[in-house]
Amino acid sequence: MKQLLYVILMLIIHACVPQNKTNGLKDRRTYVDYLDSIIQIEEMHLGASKDTFINLKNAGNEPLIIYNIESSCGCTVASWEKQPISPNKETKIRLKIRRFEIGYFNKNIKITCNSKQSPILFRIQGTVIKK
């Protein structure tokens, strides 16, 4: 009797636990094409903001879904369309950079999506100068 109650309890727990976002998507993964994982920024002025973009193409047969984009610091903010990107279509991710330190910088961007390459890592490099 105890074993039966244990099995029923385990089934209830399993049914109530939320599934990971990628569960069920393993067979629905796609491929992403992009030109370069290193983005070079021309010199930028101290305290000024600068926009740069990452262009991604869905090169697979399933819709591309971007779950999250993280930066290695608060000086870079990403914005992107939250809608799935159809196969053979492109999307543009906007990165707004604002630096308050003079000199060379080298920051990381991590894109988590339903691509087989996920997470996709990019690097932003540049130099900040005085006005």
UniProtKB/TrEMBL annotation:
Pfam family, one: DUF1573
Listed name of the protein: DUF1573 domain-containing protein
InterPro entries: DUF1573 (IPR011467), Ig-like_fold (IPR013783)
Listed Gene3D superfamilies: Immunoglobulins
Recorded superkingdom: Bacteria
